[in-house]
Amino acid sequence: MSRKKHSSCLTKTINFIFTILLVVVTAFAIQIYFNKAEGATTLKFAQISDDHLSSETVNKAYRLTANSQELLDDAIDFVNHTQNLDFVFFTGDIIDVPYEKNMLLFFEHAKKFKYPYYAVPGNHDICVGGYLNKGLYVDLMNKYNPYYKFNKTYYSFTPKIGYKVIALDPIIDNRITANGELPQAQLDFLDKEIKSAGNSTILIFMHVPLKQPFSSDSHRLLNADKMYNILNKYNNPIGIFTGHYHTTRVIQEGNIVHVSTPALISYPNAFRLITVQNFKNKVIFEIQYVPTRLVELQKKSKLLVFHASTYYGTESDRTVTITVDKRKK
To answer: Which terminus of the chain is less hemmed in, N or C, by CB atoms within 10 Å?
Structure first.
């Protein structure tokens, strides 16, 4: 009799577990079905900015230049252990001082990536009137980065159906300044690329932000109004991913999402993981803040900056989900 009770109990337990599994699998299948029915595609990437890579053995002011290589390696290792990334994008100031040897040092570290990586230059990457100009920058990228197949510092590509990546270069290289400006050729390029993208979600990467995360007359995009004039012609969901200000900020303006990513070299020593879900009637941006795992370096870095909270941002600047409804053209 006890054997029958035991057998009956075991059968009920197995049936219960089976039912739970069936419900979970069915729910997952339904989600996939509706995602496909809505034409949903997902793009996932890492954005790293302002790593200011250096071989220096001393820190410069608030930048942990002496620790720049281990900070970058920590980010690379984290990225490599993140599943299903489509690419990594560096939004400028890859190196601290514009020497070719520093670019070669960067490529030695970057070859550890298991994912494709792309980049746009920052003001620290280009030497005004010196050897490391934009032409050499492109040559080095083509030689040492197997994924960089472009002949300019600005370019575009389609990582997946429904997405258009546009890389822009507002770095001024004929005078020393931290301000940026988009030449007319790039403004025309931006207009043409968005126009040809149809209903695709537009992802723009550049060093200098279109919208300032905080006011700075010395770091702004001088002709931001001209870029706005182009973007405002289109209803596409647009994400703009930048660095330069070393701060953590996310701002939505209608169909445009501005993402300022903090510096790896200075507090809060962090980068971003971005997941974009492209549905029929909306686009969801999941923006994640990823601090370095080198906690002691981050603590040290915090002591070197004034107004640490400005660079750390609010909770909604660090990790946030933003939905952009698609509007008919």
So the answer is: N
